[in-house]
Amino acid sequence: MIKIKLKDNSILEVEKGTTILEVAKKISEGLARNATCGEINGEIKDLRYEINEDSELVIHTFSKEDIEGKKAYWHTTSHIMAQAVKRLFPNVKFAIGPSIDNGFYYDFDVEKPFTDEDKLKIEEEMKKIIKEDIKIERFTLPKKEALELMKDEPYKQELINELPEGEEISFYKQGDFTDLCAGPHLLSTGKVKKVKILSSSGAYWRGNEKNKMLQRIYAISFPKASELEEYLNLIEEAKKRDHRKLGKELDLFLFDETAPGMAYWLPKGFKLMNILIDFWRKEHEKRGYQEFSGPQLNSSELWKTSGHWDHYKEDMFVLTDSDGKEQALKPMNCPNAIKVFQSKMRSYKDLPLRFNDIDVIHRNEKSGQLNGLFRVRMFRQDDSHNFITEEQIGEEIKDIIGIAKYLYGIFGLDFELTLSTRPDDYMGDISLWNKAEENLKEVLDELCGKDNYRINEGDGAFYGPKIDIKMKDCLGREWQMGTVQVDFQLPLRFNMSYIDKDGEKKTPILIHRALFGSFERFIGIMTEHFAGAFPTWLSPVQVKILPITDNEFEYSREIKERLEKEGIRVELDERNEKTGYKIREAQLEKVPYMLVIGPKEVESKLVAVRSRKNGDEGAIKVEDFIEKIKKEVEEKIK
Ligand SMILES: [Zn+2]
Ligand SMILES: [Zn+2]
To answer: Which of 16, 37, 51, 163 is packed most tightly, with the most Cβ within 10 A?
Structure first.
């Protein structure tokens, strides 16, 4: 008998050679039915895997939080898609077909791009293969025989040739279709239930434009029809909310081909950004942050000291100045914050010193990777560099996470923290690392609760541990947002110091932190999160006044002036259009409030309020309306 330690720490004794599936059955029929793969001592295996020694076992299923479980399910579906394509297009050559965050794709070498009709046929064929419930089998071959088996598949041959000598190469076979694959896979095609082809596009073999263009099909699958439907609704909704589309419709920003990856902020969009910056600025000032601004260009000397020249030059815009000196546009603010620190002799009494800045920074991103406001070449990070003593790590991190919690709360965003710890190629003093990691864990235990954050062992930067902040928007999509990075190395590279209690020079510790990530990206995400209907405090235009005829112009202008005096952002629509039309336009602009002014309002000295949230709210006094808006802005009501 061998001992199997399960996820809940309980121990199950089973015969040697018991498969993962059999263990699942012993736990419950339901688990066995839903299981997609297992993890033996941290290694992902098929359900057919026989356990021969005492082991720890996690059984994965297709469920929201179970990434491995979904991967096995989706990857199995990618083989089903490949088999379907083979049946319909016998001359196809196969490249790769991995699972991704949402579903999977497969790259095919075919004569022409797939048409919509082709895709429908492929989906139908996939459904047939699922119905046939073909057994999926695994076998291994030595390299030579593997190459022989794949003799008509040049891409597979290329992959096999890259595998180390002497390794047994695994294949998965389902009926007449065999694929080179490391697994894991479900045990038969019938385990997959609902499939949907989503889209197709050209894709270069290995992402390299010098290689052949292949045809990629994206698809997804689910155990239940309701889950598929929910997913399809979600992508429909996400399309409607696409910030590139809304940015244009709401007049917020634009991109021009003469400046790829660099947004033009139109007046309304820039208003929104400035409101966000004001808010951010005030919140940081309250918490002892000091804002500075530094140069855009620094000579290569600075970037050599910081290490960017050796490790990051590809991503920087480099140019030569009139003295023939090499200069680079800053891709990050850290070295300039260090220069500010070094402008004076610093004492332990000065620390922590928190230098934040929102200077524009530039990164030479590949044009193929640019994506609206999500991936840009020019942006403003909500950056800060906090310089602290060793003893202050815990407190400072706690403080930073506290700010993040407050800021995200304002937008109604849930977030999750991930701690990344010391990698193998770390630099610096191991005892300092241990102490810092211990401090970070204590803080996270306290702020999130012991098991309410993730730990990525060994995933920290070489210069220090870090905490990544992921947010979830209202569609449940996850976004990598802020990051808090402890850095033991950069202060050493710049020979930074402060005078400690004992009069000795010491090196401070640096924390790099950005909570929104960048204002550009954050506005992109918020545009989608709110579907363009920003809360009143953030709306570039808060109120639109709509006089019914020109008889009400004078009174309307009076109201406009009164609101403006109170700091309310207001527009007056004096166009000669029907009121219904003006209302519809203001609705499309997603303005939180409209004031419709007719003869009755002029006479009674009231305003008829229409809100984005509740529609017609009736006529009230102007001062009451002002108070209502001010309260909403003050409390940042969502
Ligand atoms: Zn596979
Ligand atoms: Zn930095």
So the answer is: 37
- Mean pLDDT over 271-290 rounds to 96
Give yes or no: residues 463 and 555 share one domain: no
pLDDT, tens only, 93-125: 999 999 998 999 999 999 999 999 999 999 999
Q: How far apart are CA 377 and CA 368, in angstroms?
A: 12
**Which residues have CB less than 5 Å away from ligand 1 (the ion)?**
181
The whole-number pLDDT of residue 126 equals 97
Please give the distance, rounded to the nearest whole angstrom, from the Cα atom of residue 27 to the centre of ligand 1: 27
Judgement on whether residues 114 and 199 belong to the same structural domain of the protein:
yes
Question: Is 194 contained in some domain?
Answer: yes
- How far is it, in rounded angstroms, from Cα 579 to Cα 573? 10
Residues 205 and 339 in one domain: no
Write down the pLDDT at residue 167. 85
**What is the count of structural domains for the chain?**
4
Q: Specify the 3-state DSSP secondary structure of 536.
A: coil
What residues are labeled active site? 334, 363, 381, 383, 385, 466, 512
Find the CATH number of the domain harbouring 23: 3.10.20.30
Q: Are residues 147 and 231 both part of a single domain? A: yes
Share of the chain above pLDDT 70, in %: 100
519 and 580 assigned to the same domain: no
Q: What is the pTM of this model?
A: 0.80
Structure confidence at residue 207 as a pLDDT band (50, 70, 90): confident
Read off the DSSP letter of residue 49.
P
Interior/surface letters 525-551, b for 16+ CB within 10 angstroms, e for the rest:
bbbbbbbbbbbbbbbbbbbbbbbbeee
SS3 content of the chain, % helix, strand, coil (to 5): 40, 30, 30
Q: What is the CATH number of the domain that holds 612?
A: 3.40.50.800
- What pLDDT band is residue 257 in, cutting at 50, 70 and 90? very high
Nearest to 67 by CA among 33, 103, 30: 103
CATH number at residue 362: 3.30.930.10
Centroid of ligand 2 to alpha carbon of 443 (angstroms): 22
Span 549-601, pLDDT tens digits: 999 999 999 999 999 999 999 999 999 999 999 999 999 999 999 999 999 99
Q: Are 198 and 219 in contact (CB under 8 A)?
A: yes
Give the structural domain span for 54: 2-61
DSSP-derived pairing of the beta strands 509-518 and 478-487: antiparallel
